[in-house]
Amino acid sequence: MAEKLLDVSDLKVRFATEDGIVRAVDGVSFELERGKVLGIVGESGSGKSVTAMTLMGLTRGVNARFEGEILYKGTNLLEISDRDMQNYRGNELGMIFQDPMTSLNPVYRIGEQIAEAIRAHDDVDKRRARARAIELLRQVGIPNPDSRVDDFPHQFSGGMRQRAMIAMALSCNPSILIADEPTTALDVTIQAQIVELIGRLKDDFDSAVIFITHDLGVIADIADEIMVMYAGRIVEHGTKRDVFYDPQMPYTWGLLGSIPRLDRPRPERLHTIEGMPPSLINLPEGCKFRPRCPHVLEKCTEEPGLENRVDTPGHLDRCWLDVGFKRGHRDETIAGGSAEAA
Amino acid sequence: MGAFLVRRVIGMILVLIAVSFIVYLIFVKIPGGNPADRIAGRTATQANIVAIEHKLGLNHPFVVQWYDMVKALLSGTLISYYDGTNVVGQIKEGLPATFSLCIGAGIIWLFFGILVGTISAATAGRFSDRTITALALVGISLPVAWLGLILRYIFAEGGATSVFPDGGYVPLTQNPVQWLFHLLLPWLTLAVLFIGFYGRVLRSNILDTINEDFVRTAKAKGLSPRRIMVKHVLRASLIPIVTLFGLDFASVLGGGAIITETVYTLHGVGYYAYQSIEAQDLPPLMGVTLYGAAFIVVFSTLVDVAYAYLDPRIRLS
Predict the structure, then answer these.
(1) B-chain residue closest to A53, CA distance
(2) Mean pLDDT score, B180-197
(3) Do A89 and B221 touch (CB under 8 A)?
């Protein structure tokens, strides 16, 4: 069995705001092993980014409260000091973000920014750090890294900027790479390249990846496990195969139905999930997806636990619906408008 | 860069020509503006006035008068209507005092403005921030003339708390200690307003920058809070301060510290400007205005060059 890098149990993150307490993450548990890719999927406001930022200690602040445990190689990251957390960031856990234009500092050269990350953790001189920055740029596929290392971010294209971000995040050889919507701001053709690059570098660097996206299609190739989040909690968790071929949560169906597909008859329009995600200050009673769910039962006013309800072990969901009923009806949503039109 | 400088120099010359023209126009067109009237005195006859106009060249067409004055100014032969002193010579005499006042005050206000703004932003919402904010507002609101007189009254006019000399200027080359001693109060007076203002501007810049994505990236790299603040936040937040400082510093160097120089009887360019305004003496005013305008246009070019250095996305083209 591969080394267990991360063991998150019952993580809760709350923020005090002027409008009230925001329960951004509410009881999230998962594990991550070396070499694996965990996909976290959900809409904006589902708590997926807050979960990732909390792993990095980036949500720490006077208005934030944390509960539960984030065990990284046995150390609870929620309990260590800010100063100790600094040594984990970049060194043990690397992170890349959504918009590579704004995530890089516009006034420093690409190479300086990578070298800065290296020198934050390793005691090397500027020349060696620069040489390593060039090597990293070559590994992420930047052409002519010897000269491009001295470019400023605005001289790079969007895809190259994200490659540079990846080089920076991997510069200290972290065990976990957290990618928070790394492809959202990129052209579709570039998206696939970046996903492929992340998958390849994960093997080269022998690390694990947490890949956050709102688009299940993006992680179809790369993810080993998928976690679907809604209203700050996990609503479905399983292997990629489980989630794509035997989804148990009507919310997951909606996400699957919103991916355009070429291997099926073209629907008149893609599926959309009606309504908006609930406010994280005033959550609905019972199942949080209930107000938007097409198959509500009376029982749904009571919140279902995250349990294994199907015959595949490890496939967890939060839905009271009968498994047989779900298997019979879910294609109406997943196939989108075409099923209704038929 | 070369083409940029050529274009800017041509621009500066045009601006200075326009400024001189407008100053002359205003001066001749304001009520009671005719210098000959004033020089001739209250009981002058029409013949006296005409004679003086003739002597000063005021009977020429407007454009010719203006041209003659600018030419005289540039060749250093322009003299005051009022006391016949050489305008360029008077400005030169005022330079040491003005430069001493402004460079010292500029260093003080830039240093403390940045310090106060950074502390205020770093402790935003807490006691020190609120205290600094309140003091900054007081500093911005205090009229310079009032503050200058109060400081003089308390610290320089011979009372129990009087520790500084009461006004005047001692050249640096003559006695550095006395130079410093004479200038401390004027520096403070001139700097207070700017410290408050820069502190407020920098505070809000920093608080905006802290939320930028690249600052989050810097944190995610594992940099220390101090390094994030200095290398990433402050660097970006200081760019607008450079503009403010360039223009403010140019305006005080250019004789804009009129009130401070007058309150402390520092015989600098500002004091000369004040005297000339009182005497409605056109030639010195023309000289001082063009001298000040030259500083403004030169420094605004320097600001642009500094900008291109601070932000590589900006190209001087």
Answers:
(1) B220
(2) 93
(3) yes
The 3-state DSSP class for residue A267 equals coil
Residue B51 CB contacts under 8 Å (≥ 6 apart), including other chains: none
Residues of A in contact with B222 (CB under 8 A): 86-91, 117, 120-121, 172
Mean pLDDT for the stretch of residues A237-245: 94
CA–CA dist A288, A54 (Å, integer)? 22
| Cβ-count burial B279-295 (b if 16+ within 10 Å, e if not) | eebbbbbbbbbbbbbbb
Neighboring chain B residues of A152 at a CB cutoff of 8 Å: 312-313
| List of residues 6+ apart from A19 with CB closer than 8 A | A281
Residue B137 DSSP SS3? helix
Tell me if A15 sits within 8 A of A63, measured CB to CB.
Answer: yes
> Is residue A139 predicted with pLDDT exceeding 50?
yes
- pLDDT exceeds 70 at position A138: yes
Q: Which residue has the tokens 């621009």?
A: B11
Nearest CA of chain A to the CA of B219: how many Å? 7
CA gap B180, B170 in Å, rounded: 9
Instruction: Give the other-Cβ count within 10 Å of A96's Cβ.
Output: 25
Q: How confident is the model at residue A337 (pLDDT cuts 50, 70, 90)?
A: very low
Task: Quote the crossing angle between the two packed helices A188-204 and A158-169, to the nearest 10°.
Answer: 20
- For the ranges A120-134, A271-285, B30-44, the maximum mean pLDDT occurs at A120-134
Return the pLDDT at B35.
Answer: 75
The residue assigned the tokens 């067409």 is: B61
- When pLDDT is cut at 50, 70 and 90, the band that residue A56 belongs to is very high
Q: Each residue of B251-261: pLDDT tens digit?
A: 999 888 899 99
* Contact at CB, B223 and A94, closer than 8 angstroms: no
Please give the order of strands across the beta sheet that includes A64-72. Answer: A20-33, A4-17, A64-72, A75-76
Strand segments (E) across chain A? 4-17, 20-33, 37-41, 64-72, 75-76, 93-96, 176-180, 208-213, 225-230, 233-239, 307-308, 316-317
Contacts of A91 in chain B (CB under 8 A): 222
CB pairs under 8 A between A and B: 69
